[in-house]
Amino acid sequence: MSVQLPPTTEPAPGPVPPGADGGRPAKARTSRLRLTVRRFARNRLALFGLCLLVLLFLGAYGGPLLTKWDYQQHDFMNFLSSPSGDHWWGTTQGGVDLFALTMRGLQKSLIIGLLVGVISTFLAATVGAFAAYFGGWTDRVLMWIVDLLLVMPSFLIIAVLSPAFRGSTWLIFVVLLGAFSWMVTGRVVRSMTFTLKDREFVKAAKYMGVPAPVIIFRHILPSMASMLIIDTVIQVGAAVIGESSLSYFGFGVQAPDVSLGTVIADNTTNASTYPWLFFFPAGCLVLIGVSISFIGDGLRDALDPNAAGAKARSSRKGKRPRREGPKRERTVAAVPAQATTAAADGQGAAQ
Amino acid sequence: MGRYLLRRLANYLVLVVVAASLTYFLAGLSLNPRAKFEGRNPPLPEASITKTLDDYNMNPDTPILSRFGHWADGVVHGDLGKTIEGDDVNDDFGRRVGVSTRLLLIAALIGSLGGVALGAFGAIRQYRLFDRFTTLASFFVLAMPVFVIGVALKIGATALNDGSQTIKVLGEYDPQYAGQWNLDALVNRAQHMLLPALTLIILQVALYSRYQRSTMLDVLGSDFLRTARAKGLRKGKALVKHGLRTAILPVVPLLVYNIVLLFTGATFTEKTFGWHGMGELLVDSINKQDVNSVATVGLFTAVLVLIAGLLSDLLYAALDPRVRVR
Q1: Which region ranges are annotated with the description Disordered (chain A) (predicted)?
Q2: Fewer CB within 10 Å: C terminus or N terminus of chain B?
C-alpha cells in the first residue's frame, strides 16, 4: 500500500498483498491513529472481538428494554422454568426472569471491569513513572510497596475488607480491586521510564524548567501510550474475572446489586439439574473475557508494529512465517493480566 | 551469587513479616467473631461469649496491639492460636496442607509438563491447524473464571454419569474409606480426584502454553539453533536440546510461582469440589469470622511467595549458566 497515493486507495480488505507490511514507518500523510485503526481492522479476530463487546454492551443496556420482565420481579407462576418464548432464558428458583437478571449483572460487570481497568492502569503509570523519574529513595520506597502488595494475598485482603463495603456503595469494591491489580504493570512502566528519562526530549524539558509532574504526564507517559492502552484493555478482562470470582463467594458486589458473579453464585446449587441457569450467565462472562482478549491482541499488533505477532500475521499468507522479528517486548505487558489472573488457581489474586 | 541470594532472602523475610502483620491487623479490625456466637439459639450469656473470645484471643474489645502481641508471640513459638471452634489452628493447618498437597502434586506435574509441551509444539507448528486450535482454546480457557470451569465440568460429569456414581463430584474420598490406603480406597480417591485435578490441569496448560509458545517462537529464529542444525543435528534433537532448553528458561519463574502459590490459590477448585484444603480455608475462615485462621492463611501465603521467589532464583541459576557467572 503506497501511502503517497490519494486516500481513495484504501488497502483492500481480505488477502493482504505480499510485502504489504503494516509495520513500515508512517509517512507524513497518514496519521498514527488512522494507521492503527487500519491495522486493527485488518485483524479479523480483533474485529470480531470488538463487535462482540459492542453487542454485549448493547445487550446489557438495551436488552432489559426488550423484555417485559424486570430483574427484581418474581413470576410466581414460573419457578425454575426452562427457556421459552415467555422467559427467553428461563427463570430462577425465585421465579426471576434469567435474561433480565443476567443483563443487569452484565451491566455491572462491564462497568466494574472498565473502571478497574482505568484505575489500575492510571495507578501503575503514575507510581511506575514517578518511581523511575525521581529514583533514589522515592524509587526504593515505591518499589517496596509494590513488593509488599504482591506478597499480600489480594483475594484474602479484599475478602477480609468486604464487611466494610457491605451495605455501602460498590464503588469501594472497585477501588479495592484497582488498588490490588496495578503492581506488575507498575514495574513495566518503571523500567520503560528509566530508558525514556535519558532521552533528549525529556532532558530538554527538564532544563527548560518544566516541573517534574508535567514532564511525567505530558512527555513520558504519552510516549508509552500504546503499552498503557493495551494494558488497560487487558486489565479490564482481568478485572471482570476478579470481580466475578469475588462476588461468587459473596465478597464482592453485595445484595441489592447484581453482577454476573452473584447471578452464577445464586444459581449454582441448581446448576446440575437446570444447566441453563449456569450456562447463560457464565456464557456472557466468557464472552466478555474472550472479546477483550481478542481486542487486546489486535491492539498490540496494531499499536506495536515491531511485535513479532504483527509481522508474522501479515506474512500469514506466505508459506513460511517470518520469525526474525525483534524480541516481542510487549509480551511483558500482555502477561500481567493473565499472570495475576493465574497467580491463584489461578484466580484469587483478584486479579 | 550467594550474597545476592542472601540479600534477597533478607528482603523477602522483612516483606513476609510486614505482610503477615498487616493481614492480622486487617482481619482483627475488620472481622467480628462475636457475631458468630451471638446468633445462637438459645442465646449465650454475654459474659460467657466474652470469656470464650478472650480465651481465643479474638475479643474485639481488647486493643488490637495487645491481641497482635499475643498472636505474634505464639507464632514465634510455633503456636498459631485457636480456631473459632476452639481447636488448635496448627492441627487444622497440618491436615489441610496435606489435602492440598495430594490434589496439587499430580495436577501441577501434568499441568506444567502439558503446558510446556503444548506451547512448544504450537510454536513449531505456528499457524497450522494445531496451533490455531490450541491458541483459540487457551483464549477461551483464560477468559473463564475457575469456578466456571469447575461448575461446567461438574455439570458435564453429572450428564456423563447418567445416574451412576463413576465420577464423584464432591469431597476427597467417601467416608467409609477414611484412613485406608488399600486398592478400593485408592480407586475411590482417584474417582474423586479426577474433576478437581482436571480443572487445575486445564487452567495451567492453557496459561503455560501461551508463555511457552511465545518464548519458543523467539528461540526458533535464533542463530544457535540454525548452527545446531547446520552441524548435522536431527531436527527433533536440535529443537529439544537447543531450542526448548533455552525457551523454557523464562517460563521457569512463572511455573514455580504458580505451582507454589496453588497451595492457597486453588480456592475455587477446592470450594467447588468440596476438598478441605488450604484454599477452602481462605474462604471459610472469613465467613466464620475466624481471625486466627485468616491470619494463618495470610502468613502461609506470604511464606509461599518467599519460597517461590527463592526457588525460582535457585532454579534459574541452576538452569542458566549466565546467572552463575555474575
Answers
A1: 1-28, 306-351
A2: C
DSSP state letter for A10: P
Q: How far is CA A47 from CA A51, A167, A288, A314, B167, in A?
A: 6, 40, 14, 16, 41
The residues near B33 (Cβ < 8 Å, ≥ 6 apart) are B53, B56, B58, B59, B60, B84, B289, B290, B291
**A29 within a domain of the structure (yes/no):** no
Cis peptide before B42 (omega within 30 of 0): yes
Q: What's the domain range around A298?
A: 46-66+99-313
Provide, as residue numbers in chain A, all residues whose Cβ is less than 8 Å from the Cβ of B268.
245, 248, 345, 347-348
Instruction: For residue range A190-206, list pLDDT tens digits in order.
Output: 988 988 888 999 999 99
Could you report the per-residue pLDDT of A259-280, keeping only the tens digit for each? 888 888 888 777 777 888 888 8
The residues that bridge with A91 in the sheet, in sequence order, are: A97
**By C-alpha distance, which of B160, B188, B153 is closest to B268?**
B153
CA-closest candidate to residue B278, choices B252, B313, B308, B303? B303
Strand partners, B82: B88
Asked if residue A293 is part of any domain, the answer here is yes
Contact B282, A155 (CB under 8 A): yes
Whole-angstrom CA distances from B65 to A263, B28, B57, B325 are: 40, 10, 12, 47
Paired with A350 in beta bridges are: none
Give the residue ranges of chain B where pLDDT is below 50. Answer: 326
The answer to whether residue A252 neighbours chain B at the CB level (below 8 Å) is no
Give the number of domains in chain A.
1
- A27's torsion region: left (phi>0), alpha (psi -120 to 50) or beta? beta
Contacts of B152 in chain A (CB under 8 A): 278, 282
Taking CA–CA distances from B253, the nearest residue in chain A reads A339
Chain B residues within an 8 Å CB radius of A264 = 147-148, 151
- Cβ burial of A1 (10 Å; 0-12, 13-18, 19+) is middle
Helix pair angle (A171-179, A225-248), 10° resolution? 120
Q: Residue B254: its chain A contacts at CB < 8 A?
A: 339
Q: Is the pLDDT of residue A338 over 80?
A: no
A119 grid coordinates: 484505575
Within a domain: residue A294?
Answer: yes
Which candidate in A48, A160, A297 is best for mutational testing of the B interface (most B CBs within 10 A)? A160
Higher local confidence (pLDDT), A145 or A325? A145
What pLDDT was estimated at residue A335? 37
Residue A349 pLDDT > 50:
no
Domain presence at residue A253: yes
CATH of residue A245: 1.10.3720.10
| % chain A with pLDDT above 90 | 21
Domains in chain B, please, with CATH? 93-287 (1.10.3720.10)
Other CB atoms within a 10 A radius of the CB of residue A350 amount to 31
